[in-house]
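Audit log entry. Action: structure prediction of a protein-small molecule complex. Ligand: nicotinamide-adenine-dinucleotide. The ligand was supplied as SMILES and no pocket hint was given, so placement is left entirely to the predictor. Protonation state taken as written. Sequence taken verbatim from the request; no trimming, no tag removal. Recorded inputs:
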Amino acid sequence: MAIILDMEIINGFSCDNISLWSAVGKRAVMGEEDKDEISTRRVFTRGAFDYLPDGDRYLSRAPEPQFGFAVIGCGNMGQEHIRNTILEGRARVTGVYDPAPKSVQFAQRSAAKMGVELPVYEDVGEILQDTAVDAVFICSPNFTHLPVLRELAGCGKAIFIEKPIATTVADAVEVCSLLDAHNALTRIGLQYRYKAVYQEAIAEVLQQQSIGRVHSVSMVEHRFPFLDKVDQWNKFNKFTGGTLIEKCCHYFDLLNLFAGSRPRRVFANGAQAVNFKSFEYRGEGADGLDQASVLIEYENGVQGNFNLCMFVPGSVEELTVCGDRGRLFASESARLGEETRNQVDVWLGDHGTSRSVQPHYAPHIHRAGHHGSTFYEHVAFVDDLLSGSNSGPSGEDALWSVVTGAAAQASIEQGQPVEVKQFMDKELCRT
Ligand SMILES: NC(=O)c1ccc[n+]([C@@H]2O[C@H](COP(=O)([O-])OP(=O)(O)OC[C@H]3O[C@@H](n4cnc5c(N)ncnc54)[C@H](O)[C@@H]3O)[C@@H](O)[C@H]2O)c1
C-alpha cells in the first residue's frame, strides 16, 4: 500500500500552531517501508489542541522526547538545530554552550517562543558530565570544529558536527579519524542531501537508476553574499578554509555522491570579483572568493563541474546529471522575497517515461531552515539513534567534500590542474 502524505490535513489551521510530524516521508510517496496501518504519525502540537484531556489525544499527542541534545555554538546554525530538534519532537535540547552572551540570549528567546526553556552550560566539560545528553551538536565556526571535537572524542555520546568538518585537508583527516574511532553515532551536517529536489534526484539516479550509468554531473550555485556572522569569521579564509570549502562543500558532497567516485584531477578558476572589496574588520580585509568555475575528473571517468556566483539577488541551485539512458535536471530557486520554486525533470526519450515534478515539503518544515532539509536530517539522525544504524553522510564523505574544495582552491592559486593524490600527500606532509 502506498500512502501519499496528506499535507491537506493541516488546511484550515494556522501552520504556525501545528506541527505535522512524520517519521518517514522524504519523498512525497512512500513505498515498501509502509506498514499495514499508517506508519506516518501525524501529530499536532499542543497549542491548537490543548483544550483536550490528555487521554483524548491521539493524532495531537506529541512524541515523548527520548534523547537529549546539547548544542555547542548557538548562532545561526545552532538555532536552526534547536528549532528542528523541538519541531521533530523525539529529542529535547538539554542546553547550549556559547561564549557570546548575545547568541545565548537570542537562542533562549527563540526557543521560548516554541515553549522551551534553554539551560546554559559553562563549558564543554559540563556537557560531558551531563548524563541527560545523548548527542552533542557542534555548531561553532569552521576553525573551531577540530579543537571542540578533540574535547569530545571518545566521550560515548553521539556527535553531530557541522560542515565543513575542518578548514584544511590535514585537519579534516584528523576529524575523520577521530569520528571513525568514536564510540557512538557520528553525523556530518551535509544536509543538502535532504533537500526535496535532491532527495528526488537521489531516488531517480542512484536508487532507481532511471537515467542509466552516470557520465557527467554538474551543479550551479548562484546566491546572495555571505551574511553577517559573530566576529565576521566567514569573511576570512583562515577561519572558513576558503569559500570553496566553507560553502561549497555541500555541492562537492553532492557531486561526489552522484559521480559515485572520488576526484582524480581538479581544475578551477575563480576570484573575489564583487563582494566585500572595501570590507574591513579589526584592521583586516575580507579575502573569500565570490565566483568560481571548477572542473572535476573523477577516478571512474565521470566528468563533474561546478559554477559559483555569490552576488545574485536571490538564490538558485541547479543539478544536471547525464547518464547513458537519460538526463535529470533538478533546481531549487528563490528570488528575494518570493516563494521557493522546486523542479525536477527526468528525460528518458525512448528509454521510458519522462516526467516533471515539483517536490516540496510541508510549509512549516520548509520554514524551519534550509528548505526543510534540516528537519529530515534530524529525522534520520534520531532514526539512527533508535536503530543503531548509520545512514550518513559519514566523516569520509565530509573529508572528500573538503578535499575537492581545497584542491579547487589550490588550482586557482596555482593556475593549473591539481592531481588530487599528489595534492593530498603534500597537504598531509605539511603538518
Ligand atoms: N549545514 C548548513 O547548511 C550550514 C549553514 C550555516 C552554517 N553552517 C555551519 O555552522 C557553523 C556555525 O555557523 P553559523 O552560521 O551558525 O555562525 P554564527 O557566527 O552565526 O554562529 C556561531 C556561534 O558559535 C559561537 N562560537 C564561537 N567559537 C565557539 C566555541 N569555541 N565554542 C562554542 N561556540 C563558539 C559564536 O559565539 C556564535 O554564537 C559553521 O561551521 C558553518 O559552516 C552550516
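Audit: result stored. The longest strand covers residues 314-323. The two ends are 56 Å apart (CA to CA).
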